[in-house]
Amino acid sequence: MTRLLRTTSLTTLALTGALVLGGCSPDYKDEQPGPVVDRGIDAREYVEDYEQAEFEDQSGSDSTQYSASAPTAGEGESAEPGLLDDNVFVDHGASGFVDADEDARSTFALDVDTGSYSVARTLLDQGRRPPPASIRVEEWVNAFGYGDEAPTDADLAVTAETGTAPSLDDGTQLVRVAVTSRELSQAERPRLNVALVVDRSGSMDIRERLGLVKSSLALLANGLRDDDVVSVVSFEDQARPILEPTPVEDTDAVLDAIDELRPGGSTNLEAGLRLGYEQARESFIEDGANVVVLCSDGVANVGRTGPGSIVDKIQDEGADGIHLVTVGYGMGNYNDHLMEQLADLGDGFYSYVDTFEEAESLFGTELVTTMVPVAAEARAQVSFDPELVESYRLVGYDNRTLADEDFDDLSVDAGELGPGHRATALYEVRLADGVPSGSTIGTAQLAWLSAGDGEEQQAQVDVTSASGHGSPSASFDLAATVADTAELLKGGDPVAERGVALADLTDRAEALAQARVPGAEELLERIRAIARG
Fold this sequence. Notes:
Blueprint: H1 3-21, H2 26-30, H3 44-48, H4 63-66, E1 98-99, E2 105-109, H5 115-125, H6 137-141, E3 156-164, E4 173-181, E5 192-199, H7 209-221, E6 229-235, E7 239-247, H8 251-259, H9 269-282, E8 289-296, H10 310-319, E9 322-329, H11 336-345, E10 350-353, H12 356-370, E11 375-384, E12 389-395, E13 415-417, E14 422-431, E15 440-450, E16 456-464, H13 474-490, H14 502-514, H15 520-532
Parallel strand pairs: 5-6, 5-8, 8-9, 9-10
Antiparallel strand pairs: 1-12, 2-11, 3-4, 4-14, 6-7, 11-13, 11-15, 12-14, 15-16
């Protein structure tokens, strides 16, 4: 391995760690933010040159969990699990229509997770249809951009638009509620204190997923500032510090830490997270962003992960300013449910990385700014006028609902949004007879704690009925088509009986692609992959 390659890996690791450890020394804390330095790291080499270890049945190794699962293995060989083998997904169901006379308010925690869509893309690209339980509709919708403008005078902004629900022919309307957070440039962002927690158990050797983790860390390092601080913790049977809190400018130390990551052993996830939080707390930055980043396949076979153990630690640290971002790797022997739930507990977000290109997008551009909190305990509440609305249905967010009375109680755990985050919620709405077009049928409200001063903030917009002149925007059509595609894959009530056909979804996506709507070509590719499968 060349020194340039080592530098790349170490830099990536340093970048990730910087999010947690930015305050490792008093003198360093007082310095002004420094510039981002291009460290010239060739991050792609880590995954391209990755060499898998021998798969042997070792006592306590994850390999014993999957060595006998692949039917293609020859005598005396061990084999990797197939893409659909030994994965853990949990179906949270789908909400039905709610009578507005009985409950006119719908309240949920804002969520910008996209892991469900990325998992589906991985499977569809390999000719596999994703399991219905893996589909979380809001994560599909939030994986696409809709061009909503970020606010310049507040942390968050909310807009709403209404049109005819394209998957129904009974007059049901569809409301798109769009939430945007203010943007933050590299020069404006505070210093990052990041503790990187890397799973290097035996299962991370499947299909070079640990090599992709190394590439991800290298990409992250290239986007951090010299004065950001990173620490690295690895875990398998036990957890151990690979890199103590270190300024990213010490590139050699960061690269050495990346090089040290090799697979083997079981998965003591609890020990890894506890040590990661210790590192983050040790170098906590009062006016900075403090984050633990977990890179794992979520296959935890050692350590306690149930209530009363690491769960309480994650929630307490999230409330005290150290947030958890989870990044999943690998299909086949993968626990999507655990990775998604850990991020929700830790006031962070969950993403999934399946290719180097996806790692470039997440670790190369998005994480550095979005890990900086803008709005904490963010929640939304849509209130409908029961005299104008007969019933409504929130599409997705099935495991993010809150009690209506908790909207104003910001001590109740909700979601967190970073700079440039966007979240979209869709409602199917059935109006009372005779409601004129353009009538105000409700309000959409946001509530959150400002990360800047901790003050309670709110924003509100009216929700109106459709104008009667077709869809309000291309963004509306794109979001509706994405949601209908996800719901088709998910199946079950209340959408199974609608008879939504792939041919109709293809036509809708093709029309958007021909109109050059950003994201439409990608959606069309997914729909065609579903049809082939």
